[in-house]
């Protein structure tokens, strides 16, 4: 189950998985709590990232990296070929990726099919 970061309490999607793990990171639930190691300050105007990976530790790490990198920087994807996911910017824009490449799909779950 994936809650919509722009509408508190609203369900955005469910993710049917048989194997693997899903992690979400961002400011929606706990506010600006993720620290950018480059600045030592909390990330502000951060996107919400949901990542699907084989292991939960990987999904969690990549979701946090995505939040710190920000909505416009997907260069880190080249280092994450085994994960899929999406970013939702504070203004509602969405970016999705699968297997290290950004993809354009009609809905969030299409990248899982």
Written account of the structure:
By secondary structure, the protein is an alpha+beta fold. The protein has helices at 27-30, 56-69; strands at 2-3, 11-13, 21-25, 35-36, 41-42, 48-53, 84-88, 94-98, 101-103. The chain has one domain (2-112): T-fold. The strands form three sheets. A five-stranded antiparallel β-sheet has the order 3-6-7-8-9, with helices on one face. The protein has a two-stranded antiparallel ribbon with strand order 1-2. Mean pLDDT is 79; it is low at 108-113. It has two helices and nine strands.
Percentage of β-strand residues: 25-35%
Write down the CATH topology: T-fold
Largest sheet: 5 strands, antiparallel
Helix count equals 2
- Supply the CATH class: Alpha Beta
Helix content: 10-25%
Annotated CATH homologous superfamily = ApbE-like domains
Secondary-structure element pattern, one letter each: EEEHEEEHEEE
Number of separate domains: 1
What keyword list fits this structure?
113 residues, alpha+beta, T-fold, five-stranded antiparallel beta sheet, 2 helices, disordered C terminus
Short characterization:
With 113 residues, the protein is an alpha+beta fold.
């Amino acid at each position: 189950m994936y809650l919509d970061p722009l509408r508190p309490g609203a369900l955005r999607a469910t993710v049917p998985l048989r194997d693997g793990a899903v992690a979400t990171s961002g400011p929606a639930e706990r506010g600006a709590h993720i620290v950018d190691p480059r600045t030592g300050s909390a990330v502000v105007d951060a996107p919400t990232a949901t990542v699907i990976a084989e292991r939960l530790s990987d999904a969690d790490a990549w979701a946090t990296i995505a939040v710190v990198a920000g909505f416009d920087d997907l260069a880190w994807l080249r280092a994450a070929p085994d994960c899929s996911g999406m970013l939702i910017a504070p203004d509602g824009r969405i970016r999705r990726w699968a297997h290290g490449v950004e993809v354009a799909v009609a809905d969030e779950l299409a990248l899982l099919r």
